[in-house]
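Record Transglycosylase SLT domain-containing protein, 222 aa.
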Amino acid sequence: MKKLNIIIIIIMIPIAIIVYTFLFSLFRTIQEAIHTEPTEVIEEEVSPFDIPVPSEYLPIYMAAGKKYNIPWPLLAAHHRIETRFSTMETLVSPAGAQGHMQFMPCTFVGWKHPSCEGLGEGDISKEELTSVSAIAQYGGYGVDANGDGIADPYHIEDAIYSAANYLSRFGAADGEIERAIHEYNKSEAYVKDVLHFYELYTTHKDQLLAQIKKPAAQAKEE
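=>
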């Protein structure tokens, strides 16, 4: 019996050492967890936009949208698709569309112009293209938005207001957004792309409008 007790004691000693070591290690781990300050996690705001919408254009979209009774995110969407917010190397397409919002000359000055046919490039001089009286005569969609006496597709305000005028007349003012986009460019892929960005900018409208307030607040601080 005495021998059995000795054997049991011999067996228990290493077990006790293992248990002690484990409990001591667990205790130290718990202490470290209690006294370690939590690491601050900084969450970066992830933009939902593939290309940032320039804040300087937002007031123009809004003013043009209000004037022609159309949703201003639609103008932002067209601007994004047409010239990537005017960042294209040239503002003239291979087909002859011109300016920030890519108007064919015959659409801008009017299809009643005697040279207008086909895709609408026409034989229109720069003077006629930007002439408010010529646009009125030929039934074009060009608009003199900044009041300088000409309607210029290469002037950002004129171009955006002209696009708003066109989209409004083709149904956007009545809620027929898809129809208006299709009239702007009859490609189904184009319609799909513009709709995508229109819905995206509409969903994140508040985030976009916050961009206008930021520069104003920063200027006030300075």
